[in-house]
Amino acid sequence: MSTQSQTQNRQLHWQRYRYPQSLIQFTLVLLALSALAYSIHFLNIDLQRLLSVFGRVGEVLAERYFPPDLAYISQPGYLQSVIESIQMAYLGAILGMLLAVPLAWFAAWNVTPARRWLYPLARLAIMGSRSVHEMIWTILFVTVLGFGMLPGVCALVMFCIGFAGKLFAEEIEVIDMGQVEAMQANGANPLQTFMYAVWPQVRTAWTGIAIYTWDVAFRAATVVGFFGAGGMGWYLKRNVQQLETERVAAILLSIVLLVLVSELISAWARHRLSRRRAGNQLQNA
Question: Which domains does the chain have, with CATH numbers?
Fold first, then answer.
């Protein structure tokens, strides 16, 4: 057999893992399964009871939450709370994303105007907003500002700053630096560089992130009222405390319906955006 044939036979031989990669892979899987088994044993989780939980949940829903009180969610007061939740989501998402844009610019290592002090401060602001859950932000703002929509809007603003700011900054850090360097070589200041070299490259990606941010903010707005921020969450809290389970079921159905409508709208907007992006790529090609 010639040397060329032997080389071809060796090339056709395929293995997923070679030693010692196979041993490392097996060890990692074994360690993960061992940690899972130890956690179940340490937490004293009854697997048999866990498997039967879905049946018990179905029984509880059928006995206590059915039929939903649909007449309750058709009342003018509740419909007004739905509008308040939508307004909270809109204001929180818009204000949060407007504040996230400069923070993302400052928090991007490749284009930040001052790496020594502005970059760490912007990163700290984004990280601090993300590290606290929106429900905790709501409790804090309710304590400071009192009950109403204002603390809910402020909580959603903080949530959107952390959520959108991180994604915005990551999009900036993967841009083509050729345009940025060309602007800087021509004497452009940091703001001009951002507007004419950075923004055109991230505009489409940021639009998609903004749509997704509003979608997530709307879902959060439906329940922040549970902690005193008004909207649909306030009705949910009141009926849960009064054990009005049929009304609770109706409110949950309305929340699911609104989230579904929001998801359909955001999916339609993302589809339009992807088609526009594909058209721009064909024109540039």
Answer: 81-284 (1.10.3720.10)
Residue listed under structure tokens 């990551």: 170
- Are residues 69 and 250 in contact, defined by beta-carbon separation less than 8 angstroms? yes
Report the alpha-carbon distance of residue 182 to residue 188 in Å, rounded.
Answer: 9
Angle, helices 245-284 vs 199-224, to 10°: value is 170
44: left (phi over 0), alpha (psi -120 to 50) or beta: left
Say which residues have a Cβ less than 8 Å from residue 155's Cβ, sequence separation at least 6: 92, 134, 135, 137, 138, 140, 141, 224, 229
CA pair distance 199, 184, nearest whole angstrom: 15
The reported pLDDT for the residue numbered 19 is 60
Query: The pTM is what?
Result: 0.73
